[in-house]
Write a structure and sequence with these properties.
- There is one protein chain.
- By secondary structure, the chain is α/β, with parallel strands linked by helices.
- Helices cover 40% and strands 12% of the residues.
- The strands form two sheets. Strands 1-5-6-7-8-9-10 form a seven-stranded parallel beta sheet. Strands 2-3-4 form a three-stranded antiparallel beta sheet, with no helix packed on it.
- The longest helix is centred in the middle third of the chain and has 26 residues.
- The protein is globular, with a radius of gyration of 20 Å.
């Protein structure tokens, strides 16, 4: 009897060889925790200003991305005075309205797909990103080095709250996997030295990973850019998958080091011709096959563009070539 997408992907996470190369977009159904900052699935228009759960205004610059902190207007302009700007205590997760999410949960296809949820929705539950959210990128990186005492004071309060949110989210959705998204890098390098991250951020992310693992849920860590320096720590902390694991990282070395114990999701050539409008179909398809040939042998790989390729950027037809080739070629790869 044929197995489902769900069964195939769970085999991968169990360290087994799947029947075919899983495709994230086919095998996973999303459960977004709307009360805590993802704003549900609303209709966004460019220019809309929307507050998050804590009252922080966000602006929509791209409807597909959703609301983001207003550039140039940090909600907390001085981290040493952060308690003047953030109302405490933070909202009790048990008092939030989760009714929309409960309704959405009943619509999820739990038989055929793996259920994925998030630690806190958009830009919350991510130690570095939550500081960027309130302080701005420049402010967060400055505070990281210049105000360590205030940094720990502020971040510890947020992570104490987020651990409660994680537990509540899991109790409602019963997800198989939970993503903790903390973007720590850009294309060429991380935003900070590894030792700085280990001292100022890692203990808080470890608390979130522990909260997820304690509930029997698989930890997936999201980090765009050149984040390979964090992989060994993520694995030691309990993460079992990295998305989007882009090609500026030495993914072959990571795969050789961990084999099936740490799953690479993505590997997509977001900076190359596969993701450039106007690239011929044959070249797009050949690049997809090369990606699978490079990262899928032995398992431990999920194909995904991880939102690095979008139809409105490269064209619907081009986007369809990518996924059609991945499905066609990946289906029989292990046979």
């Amino acid at each position: 009897m044929p197995i489902t997408e769900r069964e195939n992907l769970l085999r991968l996470f169990n360290g087994e060889l799947p029947d075919w190369v899983p495709i994230m977009e086919d095998a996973v159904t999303m459960a977004m925790p709307t009360p805590i900052g993802s704003w549900g699935f609303g209709d966004f228009k460019v220019g809309d200003v929307i507050p998050d759960t804590l009252g922080v205004p966000h602006v929509v610059s791209d409807p597909l991305v959703g609301p983001m902190p207003i550039p140039g207007e940090p909600y907390v302009p001085d981290i040493t005075r952060w308690r003047e700007f953030i109302e405490l205590p933070l909202p009790d997760p048990d008092s939030m309205d989760w009714s929309l999410d409960i309704q959405l949960e009943t619509e999820l296809d739990r038989v055929n797909k793996v259920v994925q949820s998030y630690t806190g929705g958009t830009m919350a539950g991510s130690p570095f990103n939550v500081m960027v959210k309130y302080l701005s990128h420049e402010g967060a990186l400055t505070a990281l080095l210049a105000e360590p005492e205030a940094w720990h004071d502020m971040l510890s309060v947020f992570i104490d709250w987020e651990v409660k949110v994680v537990k509540k989210t899991i109790s409602i959705y019963h997800p198989d996997i939970m993503m903790n998204a903390d973007d720590l890098s850009f294309v060429h390098a991380p935003f900070m030295a590894l030792e700085t991250w280990r001292e100022m951020i890692k203990p808080y992310q470890k608390r979130l990973f522990d909260a997820i693992s304690e509930e029997g849920v698989i930890v997936l860590v999201h980090c765009c850019g050149k984040g390979e320096q964090f992989v060994d720590d993520w694995y030691e902390m309990g993460a079992r998958c990295w998305d989007p694991a882009q090609n500026m990282n030495d993914l072959e070395a990571i795969k050789a080091r961990y084999n099936n114990r740490f799953v690479i999701c993505g590997g997509f050539d977001s900076q190359g011709k596969t993701n450039k409008r106007g690239t011929p179909e044959a070249e797009v398809r050949a690049n997809v096959r090369a990606q699978i040939d490079r990262l899928a042998p032995g398992g431990g790989f999920i194909f995904s563009t991880s939102m690095m390729a979008l139809p409105h950027d490269i064209g619907e037809e081009h986007y369809n070539w990518i996924y059609d080739e991945a499905r066609t070629y990946g289906r029989d790869f292990y046979r």
